[in-house]
Amino acid sequence: MRRVGALVFPGFELLDLFGPLEMFGLLKDYFDLQLVAETSEPVASNQQVRANPDVTFKDADRFDVLFVPGGMGTRREVSNTALLDWIRTVSESAEYVLSVCTGSLLLAGAGVLDGRRATTNKAAFTKIADQYPKVDWVKQARWVEDGKFITSSGVSAGMDMALGAIALMHDRETAEKVAMWSEYDWHEDKDWDPFAKIHGLI
Amino acid sequence: MRRVGALVFPGFELLDLFGPLEMFGLLKDYFDLQLVAETSEPVASNQQVRANPDVTFKDADRFDVLFVPGGMGTRREVSNTALLDWIRTVSESAEYVLSVCTGSLLLAGAGVLDGRRATTNKAAFTKIADQYPKVDWVKQARWVEDGKFITSSGVSAGMDMALGAIALMHDRETAEKVAMWSEYDWHEDKDWDPFAKIHGLI
């Protein structure tokens, strides 16, 4: 059983967070999900609707899996020292560190991606890559695995990555079962990424 | 601007709810999203993590769009008279009534699908279809449109349906823009449904 700490902050992107948590959450015997925020107040997403944190930064800084969604709120949170400190601390002991979309901006801001291969939202790619040159940013990838760090492209890519992570932590059959249960058409190839071209990155 | 009332109840399926709300929520000028529950307490999903209601049944029963997710909790809620009454009332005046997965069990339980074509989760299909014979259940469909009622297959199908609904309410270009923003590979054909075969329905 792996304990997943999923970060939430004001302006998180709904599907970045709940797409992957759907996939992990369908394996109740394998994953225990917790939403973690700076305070215990409900947190409004970029789509307005609100999630309810289970624990706060000061109550919980050890998880087997750290999960970081993106969203417009990352632009502000990348200057939030308490949040970046928490990411650094949790990353150190976590077995896996996952991000979706501009969640990788927060990981880069915390410095934990330095020297690592990673990807991010394709519309925001160039700006983020220019800002954090110590990260080896991959232009075309649905998701990128480098050691314990697994980072995905924008929003929907998080679901494909989550199934990839399940295949890595368990096996491919388990990931395929979860895709079938959720009637999801899994893009299993982590190099599948038509959006890199759409956004002129390749 | 359309006001969307999205029902939440204990044991709702995370992605049933938040996949479509991601799509609608990316069009902030077109849709105003509200989570509606029986009480104002945080509501635990089937994946445990909790959503925070914006309004309760007694505070709000008029919406332009009624949105009903599925999940294990529907098995209990289909006997909840307050919830079924609320669905009936909101459905009457709503311009559109949408469901994902076993959300159609709640619509059927409220009687609003009688004489209508509809679909549901493919693993639960036969049981639900046998229970509500007045509904014209469609075995193979990613989603089904019949008048103001738009019902989708299991979990992930909700995202394809939401984009279909956006195309219907606005236009196809708008739906394609939302798919691009969310780096989503939209199954635009509402008859695309490999899961009907997987579950032996065809």
**How is the largest sheet of chain A built, in terms of strand order?**
5-2-1-6-7-11-10
Q: How many domains would you count in the coordinates of chain A?
A: 1
Order of helices and strands of chain A: EHEEEEEHHEHEHEEEHHH
In CATH, the homologous superfamily of chain A goes by the name Class I glutamine amidotransferase (GATase) domain
* CATH top-level class of chain A: Alpha Beta
At the fold tier of CATH, the topology name of chain A is: Rossmann fold
Largest sheet descriptor of chain A? 7 strands, mixed
Distance between the termini of chain A: 40 Å
Keywords:
homodimer, 202 residues, alpha/beta, Rossmann fold, 7-stranded mixed beta sheet, two-stranded antiparallel sheet, DJ-1/PfpI family protein (chains A, B), INH-QAR (chains A, B), Class_I_gatase-like (chains A, B), DJ-1/PfpI (chains A, B)
